[in-house]
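Consider today's protein:

***
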Amino acid sequence: MPHLAVHLPENRLTGKEPALVAALTDAIVDVYGEWARDLVSVRLAGVPAGRFAQGGKAVDANASVTLGVRAGVFERPDAARITARLGAALTDAIARVVGEDLRAGTMVELVASPPERTFVGGVLAV
């Protein structure tokens, strides 16, 4: 179950939420396949002005994406290709919807979740 938490400057996000959710979902589907569409969970967080910083200075051209994935993706023979495609596809989605100037400041972090540590609705997700 791919879970995305995306932090963007509030002033860059406002009004673009539906398009960004669609683009991020499509990015995951492009890598995993159509079967994953209904499993993609996206949480968008707008960061108020002055609260997104890089190098000790406030910026409005950065984005942070945390993608929670099953740990097994890193054990696949094609793990390097899959993870590279995820990073590129999610960055492309943000740049396309929010602005190309965010590309250089977009960080995508893939976080592994072992199967025994993923719960949905209080129940272990298998």
Summary: Residues 79-98 form the longest helix (20 residues). The longest strand covers residues 63-70. The chain is about 30% helix and 30% strand.
